[in-house]
Design a protein that fits this description.
The chain is 53% helix and 16% strand. By secondary structure, it is α+β, with helices and mostly antiparallel strands.
Length: 298
């Protein structure tokens, strides 16, 4: 009997371990921070550990449902904190410095980009969950209805509204990674040189910059608009810290981005939206609480 119990426990553990990356992906896309996503996955494990596995038709469906519902509950509980957050809230960046492996490529696909997470933050918890389950994880509406405890028509409406919001803020053209990376390389050099004109030439006229300091460091409490103003921000930092500002290329949430260091210490992670051959938006994550997993020194 003990051997049989151990075998069942071993199988349950192996099943959960195999699905854990998918569960983390769901939780992170819903919540935007590693800590919250890890907590949700841990809660899902505790429920899985106590479940009657013999009665389940699909372990994956059961775990995805539990993780989604736990994420919705946690997102609702965090809404008060988000509303009281100082300045703009951006997700904790997932950063890779080297070429991604096939496994990490699946986890850090474009559907977890900072730009998408920025839009998702403006959806209700149910809209966010329905959109992700349908558009990212490709569940059918019957499954989504079961997971969210709603009928299929309601789920279709949730996805429709969310998709409308997302499409409004997406770039018009899909830019190849190589083009994105080359553009950022030119921008990185111009920023490091403090060449305001060269930076401005790489930006769309209507570029916007969103910064998240979380009240922990100085940051902008409004969104900056215009190539002149945004280029001026980079120029001013270099002017105030001559020879002390440096940039490091990185994959940020699966897309080319930059880490910025001031006096050799991490200052921000920066994600860029590129449309055609110009930068149209910059997301600057400066809250120190969200930079702890990054290389702290240049």
């Amino acid at each position: 009997m003990a051997a049989m119990t151990d075998a069942v426990s071993s199988t349950a553990l192996a099943t959960f371990a195999a699905l854990r990356p998918r569960l983390f992906s769901i939780a992170y896309r819903m919540l935007g921070t590693r800590a919250d996503a890890d907590d949700v996955v841990q809660d899902a494990w505790l429920r899985w550990h106590g479940a009657d596995h013999a009665q389940l038709q699909s372990a994956e469906a059961w775990l995805v449902t539990v993780t989604t519902r736990l994420s919705i509950d946690r997102l609702r509980s965090r809404q008060g904190e988000r509303e009281a957050y100082v300045g703009w809230w951006l997700p904790e960046p997932l950063v890779e410095l080297d070429q991604r492996t096939p496994e990490s490529a699946a986890e850090l696909a474009s559907d977890v980009s900072v730009a998408l997470m920025w839009v998702l933050e403006r959806l209700s918890p149910e809209e966010r969950a329905a959109f992700l389950l349908r558009q990212v994880f490709e569940h059918d509406y019957k499954d989504i209805a079961s997971m969210l405890g709603k009928n299929e028509a309601a789920c279709r409406q949730l996805v429709h509204r969310a998709q409308g919001r997302v499409q409004q803020e997406q770039p018009r053209f899909e830019v190849p990674t190589e083009v994105h990376r080359a553009l950022l390389a030119r921008f990185m050099q111009a920023a490091a040189d403090g060449d305001r004109g060269a930076m401005k030439a790489l930006m769309a006229d209507g570029i916007q910059l969103v910064a998240d300091g979380g009240g922990k460091v100085n940051s902008f409490f409004h969104i900056l608009h215009g190539a002149g103003r945004v280029a001026g921000v980079y120029w001013a930092l270099e002017h105030q810290n001559p020879g002390q500002v440096s940039y490091r290329p990185a994959l940020i949430n699966g897309e080319p981005g930059l880490l910025r260091y001031v006096d050799g210490k991490i200052e921000s992670a920066q994600a860029f939206i590129v449309d055609a051959d110009r930068i149209v938006a910059v997301f600057v994550m400066r809250n120190p609480d969200k930079l702890g997993a990054l290389p702290q020194c240049m």
